[in-house]
Amino acid sequence: MSVLRRNLDAVLACLALIGLMVTLVWPDWIERLTGLDPDGGSGAVEWVVIAVLAVLTLVFGVRAWRVLRAAPGPR
């Protein structure tokens, strides 16, 4: 179970990091992908997306690290 949880948390951390990097490099992807402009061009939604993805990256990364550290045996 802990290996599955660690792997799932690591994958989720990587996906959140990829989303974070895409949003930093290509901030108007929401507008281009959906055709919607939720913030009227101010960029506020993009900053919220960046903040949420940064927190998710840290949370899932720490969870994966904690499971790895708690695992018995050689590392």
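Next protein, fold it too.
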Amino acid sequence: MRKLIATVFNYSLDGLLADEGTEFWDFCFSLPENREPDDPAHLDFLQSAYAHMIGRTAYEGIAGSMATSTDHPFAGILNAGRKVVFSRTLKTADWANTIIASGDTAEEIDQLKQGGDGHIVVWGGVRLWQLLMRLDLIDELRVSLFPYVAGGGTRLFDGVPESYQLDLVSSTAYSSGIVELQYRRAR
């Protein structure tokens, strides 16, 4: 059975996501040393995914920039990869290799996880991550923790179960101060 792995980019020390238009957003994206590392292991992890899951809002943002990008290290991976957008309102998806999942979330994910080994990468957005945590469907959580205290913004863990134990699998510190944390869901 395939594993569902949520990837959380641009996460602050005080537990906030980088909301567009904030100083934290600018910190994450404007300084070259803060961009996501072109770590070969991370690129291989994304390349070898069976599918890439995305919520509607995240899909619209990511598709808008990646579908035409030629220089972002994730563009070729995402453009060629199988993508599943979870939305009850989106009617069409123009990005190549994209299907829309609009049924029962747990059933749709169960179908995706069947039939093989490997993993499915969940790119977000925050409502999708929170729903998957409430349904206890996430097998692993990978967090890019930035050396920044945002002070305000969107909290990833609002509205999730009060008790949600994770076991640390690995941590990798980069010279930029970003720490990549990999957790496995304790069941």
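About the second fold: Strands lie at 3-11, 16-17, 51-55, 83-86, 98-101, 119-122, 140-145, 154-155, 166-173, 179-185.
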